[in-house]
Design a protein that fits this description.
Length: about 270
Amino acid sequence: MENSAVFSEEAADEIEKNHVFHVYEQISDHFSETRHSPWPNVKEFIDSFPAGALLVDVGCGNGKYLNCSKSLFSIGSDRSSKLLQVCRSRGGHQVVNADCRVSPFRDGIADAVISIAVIHHLATEERRLLALQDISRLLSKGGRALVYVWAKEQKIGTKKSTYLLQKKNEVSRTEEAYPSTILPVHENRTEFKHADVLVPWKLKSKTSGSKELDPGINPSAFLRFYHVFKEGELDSLCSSIPNISICRSYYDEAHVILEVDIQFLA
């Protein structure tokens, strides 16, 4: 198993700026089009809370989970201003622009917190831990959080994940296509060879011609930073946070995404 890359704070800032924040601002419309159906396990988690509970979605993206339950009060935060525009336009959701490590909400405000496919975009273990600590800070006593991250292992036994089974995008060999990148570029729909990688996102042709794309940016492929979690890694981070109990840790079999359901005990 390859060890994670080690980045300085300055390098981590640059990686996240160039390969997370700027990328999602450019692909927001296309990304939102591909994120329309709530994942069943996440919806089940949301539906487990009583009417009137407050749900906070940290890294809410296009807001697809903010209207899963009409009986809950739901608010969200995201770093992407373009995705927040989508949130507001599609449902008038209550959302704010914020880094997932330092949310603007007060301590103990939430009965439920979800963070779905967010903290794997943070470039260091310290940053990922800060995001989890902030999630725990938001929870009221007895409150629960559900955290999803991409898993490095994309098989359960011999069963391949949906990610591996989907048709590959037409991408050149990564070593040839991106010779100057500072991190390995993952070949889509293949097993992960590295823990810290750049994952290509290819825009549809009609979106590639969008007037919103910044001049000089190649719209054919954007590289998103991912830290893919090995088995037990997310559990270990959560266990280091005081007053947190892991209710369960498991894989979403459809996506082979690691899920941790935690409860705040203090």
